[in-house]
Specification:
This protein has 463 residues and is of the alpha/beta class. 37% of the residues lie in helices and 17% in strands. The strands form four sheets. A seven-stranded mixed beta sheet has the order 10-9-8-11-12-16-13, with helices on both faces. A five-stranded antiparallel beta sheet has the order 2-1-7-5-6, with helices on one face. Strands 3-4 form a two-stranded antiparallel ribbon.
Amino acid sequence: MTDTDAVMDNDLIQARQFVIIEMPSGNSKIVNLKPNTMISLGKFGNFHSDNLIGKPFGLSYEILGKQGEIRPVGHVSKNTNVEETDANNQTIVDDNAVQKLSHEEVLKLKEMGLRGELDTEEIIKKMVDSHAEFSKKTEYSKAKYIERKKKKFMKVFTPVRPTLSTVTDYFFTKNSEKIKHLRIDTLSILLSMANVHANSKLLVVDDTQGLIVASCLERMGGFGQVVALHEGDFHSYDILRYMNFSKSIQDTLYTVPFAMIDPTTPEEPFDALSEEEYEKLDDNHQRAYLRRKSAWDYKVKSRKLLFEGDFDGLIISSAFQPESVLKVLKDYVSGSRPVVVYSFSKEVLLQAAFWMRRTRDFLNADVTESSLREYQVLPGRMHPNMNMSAGGGYLLSALRVIDCPYDPSLAQRGSNNNDRRSKKKKKNNNNKKEVTPKETVESKEEDVKMEEATSASAPEASS
């Protein structure tokens, strides 16, 4: 396969990939596209996974009938320019009486649409024609009414590629507690402060279900190493599986439990078999032995990378006190490297910043907070959204400093000809005039005469 084919396949939806499905109601759903399965979208209907595999991301599709057929359509939120008129909604009485269709008739139209017997456009047209006050609405109100009915009755969905931005927005909207209320703008600033880039070696403590680890892996693109520390025997980086990372990117991640970060802790025992003993095993036992050996080698290599140190950055998001984690991990970070700590609580970071400013191991400790305001961008109707998040967490950033002891042998002596200050001092000394012994005696005689004149004038002044 050529590089062009690989890029083209990457732009298309593949089998057994995770895909974010955006529905007309504004809700989203993450699904795994297994071949020959039906994907349920609740009230918006079902579609067959094979009909979506091989299609591009970002296009909107409409579900047709009960067989799961789909066809590409325009996005449900697509708006056209609306001309301003002198009409207003002052005399409109908006209640249930203005709709001539009964609730049972509306449900019947909806069921016909789910069965594919009636198009969505026809359902919306019947709703508009039966609205007694629709003609009195302004053009903005008419467009808003139609768009609201489209989101309610249209069986349209949009597959979106799981990226750092889309996955973060999905979990922040659906369950922000799972990612510790880490918002996309705060995560972007965190990656910038930590100077995450390709061919870097990072040390990460992540309790956001793997969101920070996934963001580092995505930015590094499979070049470099990420050593992640976690609680328990196995990590809980659930978000990693939604990112559809390739094996080359996954191989750059190394995990170490907190219980194994002590260099004095011995490695877990492993009974290695000789070639003769390995050949005596059957196929199933050979595969099981290789899996155990591969897992043991992975753990040994992960600890070795941790103890080697020389990390290019340290990122912490943990339920433990930040200063307690920093005391243990600061020695593994190289000098002049960034250290970033995330927490949803400002007080926790303020206490850690106070501790960092008192030590000689960190420089320029500072706590920051970002602000994000979303806008609705429509022709003639641009304004901030009514509902927005109050906060996205705080960041504590600092610079790792290695305190070197003073070495007197490195100080330059004053006799060094290369010292410009010593040259200037020597030049000033040469310009000074030498004082002879004769001049010294004469100056002493003058001082004595001045003292006698002063003492003689003192009684006259008193009389």
